[in-house]
Amino acid sequence: MQLDARIPSGPIEKAWDKARFEMKLVNPANKRKHEIIVVGSGLAGGSAAATLAELGYNVKCFCFQDSPRRAHSIAAQGGINAAKNYQNDGDSIYRLFYDTVKGGDFRAREGNVYRLAQISVNIIDQCVAQGVPFAREYGGTLANRSFGGAQVSRTFYARGQTGQQLLLGAYQALERQVDAGRVRMYPRTEMLDLVVIDGCARGIITRDLVTGAIECHTGDAVVLGTGGYGNVYYLSTNAKGSNCTAIWRAYKRGALFANPCFTQIHPTCIPVSGHYQSKLTLMSESLRNDGRIWVPLHRGDQRKPGDIPEAERDYYLERRYPSFGNLVPRDVASRNAKSVCDEERGVGEHGLGVYLDFSDAIQRLGVEKIRERYGNLFEMYQRITDEDPYKVPMRIYPAIHYTMGGLWVDYQLMSTIPGLFAIGEANFSDHGANRLGASALMQGLSDGYFILPYTISNYLASRSFDKVDADRTEFQSAKNDVEERTRRLLNTRGSRTVDSFHRELGKLVWDYCGMSRNAPGLETAIGKIRELREEYWRDVRVMGAAEEINQSLEKAGRVADFFELAELMCLDALERNESCGGHFREEYQTPDGEALRDDEHFSYVAAWEYVGPDDGPKLNKEPLVFEYVHPSQRSYK
Amino acid sequence: MRLIFHVWRQSSRKAPGRMVRYESAALNPDMSMLEALDVLNEELILKSEDPIAFENDCREGICGSCGFVINGLAHGPMAETTVCQLTLRHFRDGQELYLEPWRARPFAVLRDLIVDRSAFDRIIAAGGYISVPAGSAPDGNTIPVRKDDSDRAMDAAACIGCGACVAACPNASASLFTGAKISHLGLLPQGLPERDSRALRMVAQMNREGFGQCTNIGECEAVCPKGIRLEVIGRMNRDFLRASWSKRER
Fold it and tell me: Full-prediction pTM beyond 0.90?
């Protein structure tokens, strides 16, 4: 398949203006004649649904939660980047663009990233006007902090609840449109398939999670803002319900899936405490601004942290990366934590943890200052671990947090199926092989408030739409597929629970396609995933019926899709014979253990195409061209 | 660790419900209450029984999905803690726990511990927003906001919409929830143009949904996992009265 990213030609600073001018517009009177389906109500989906309705479109918005306000964007803590340069510290749109391309290890598209940096400033304005209570200085202006390895202070935040406040802003805008009658909200409704008619996305099949009814919804375009697929690992920082089903169903209907192996491991999570653990809790990486990370110098040192003298501590990030120290990017911090634990220098009961120590900061700034900055995070840590981080160092360990891969989209955020758009974490476009801290919120809102509303109009204006009816065979056959799948899951009545399979799958993916990967391991993983998947369909036990609230059934469908995605992730990781960002192939590293990119052979987006159940997926490549930020070895030394 | 659970089981909105006794010995003090239910559910499934339905998502106390009553207390015995963050180390080995859904007329039980909280969305839709279409905002620093106003707005905005306040209130009032949003937006200069209409419409919607009136009992504040203060109700009442008077004068 020929992939055309539709990046406007000419200077990158003018590209988005040029694209906007060239886009066709829909006459205001005609907008209400178009029905748009938006799946997902997080920062991307929620902001898109609200904005499309403000423009006059008829919107149907779907979420599996009981309210759009509960989408997982709500859990983001740290902040949102914007190139406002309010701190006069040398930030600019170009610098945010540069940092993002470099931070992504040169595997993102320059055009998309530049536009993201440009729009970042509008997002802050919009959110302030909506009443998002960002942190402020005493003079009444907006406060900023530096975050996640950035050398300028460009991160806006609302205590440790930035995602919550931004989401509530989008949710309130969405509810305003619900009240105005322009958005019809479908909570507790899960998308289970995409309907493609004459090559274009024209609707979805959903299950009402209360009654179990399988329903058809028609529309002129379908927007997926359904988030990432980190829960393929079972243990992740994602919400329990976060899943890949919507994008996976779209993939199986012909949309290309890009860079599935690009997953982000967040360095500051609370370590696993037992086999019953249901999810991992992230602590904002702003903690790394003041905390110092260390492990004992000697392996197997069982002493309490306070009993280990300064000379026998290894502040390994400060030692290895003197200029960035504890603020190296996420992938670097995570990998280093793994390697010191592999050397048996990890701390905590299972040896899978490193210390994050605030004693120096407390001495320097006083307890009150630290409480003001991180009080809620310290409380959360204590609540979970029963340890007081004001007195003993926190223990942290990396966990899966974000997935850079997702549906392939062009500059217009449209997938390879005309009329199917993917926004936010569900697409692949802006973060390359590693996302910088405080950039996920920025991308979700940028796509939803400021990009998609233009590009979808361009799509709608450039063709005519025959009315489609849910009686059409395409709808009925997709509906039958969904019903058949549901029946099969319920009728298997095997001997193992969905969770037990999911845990086992997650462990496989974590062990072989997690923080570091190698070819034999990935091949092993593919074999084991296939075996486990066959066992799943033979031996899973789902209780209850289809026509009622059935949480096991919901999970069962999602896990079935995770099995297939897990295999594609391993395949993609195997195909990419280089290390870049979050994708670390052990065979490809520099003598001192850093990721070794291979720009000559792998400077492309790997876009996988589903070609049917009997053949393996087909790899399509979109070459990446760097005209502005020239690829270099990332160095944080 | 072993716990005895008495759990409200109800198969659907219309079906009658009842308390059912379960016991699990496979627990651990570091588990959260929801992880304990996970363990119990795995045991039930292996015995071919229907697992207990309970709402949950983020499991870090921010999405507001989870919540039920434990031994008469919404979200259980720990202050400012949702059930997903409530660890079993706060209970005794062998303790008996009674788990029930939120009880309030506007919150119909849908299954077991799951209730319908859509009334909250309708209260927000009735005015819990600032009307500012995308693209129409001035620069973020155009209007300075006093830091203490902004901090107080944030205190109120921390509400996660879990519904514990309604469940704890003997009148099933939604005043803490509604007052929190009215306070959040009313404390900010951006929220002032719609301050009157917001108070009038949101209070009217709250009443239409069938929530009771606030009689200053304070149970809501006591159970709120985010520490929302009763003063937001005072602010709601003041804004409502002020708006009612100014409407009359116009």
Answer: yes
